[in-house]
Specification:
By secondary structure, the protein is of the alpha+beta class. The protein has one domain: Beta-grasp domain (Ubiquitin-like (UB roll), Roll), CATH 3.10.20.30. It has one helix at residues 17-25, and strands spanning 2-5, 8-11, 32-36, 39-41, 56-61. Strand 3 (32-36) and strand 4 (39-41) form a beta hairpin.
Length: 66
């Protein structure tokens, strides 16, 4: 199925949000926020969140600044 991740079209086989984050981020999920179709998904819900064709996923990494 095709989804959009940070404005880039990607084809995925597994509809699990956790599977997507594992493939894109590996274990580097500290400081990461994810929204699906403009709704923030709490990290505790990544495992049970399933994606659908044409979903828009936004991955945001917190940065420290001054």
């Amino acid at each position: 199925m095709e989804i959009t991740v940070n404005n880039e079209v990607k084809t995925i086989n597994d509809d699990s949000l956790l599977s997507l984050t594992d493939s894109l981020l590996g274990d580097k999920t500290k400081g990461i926020a994810i929204a699906v179709n403009q709704t923030i998904i709490p990290k505790a819900d990544w495992k049970k969140t399933h994606l659908k064709t044409n979903d828009a996923v936004l991955i945001i990494k917190a940065t420290q600044g001054g």
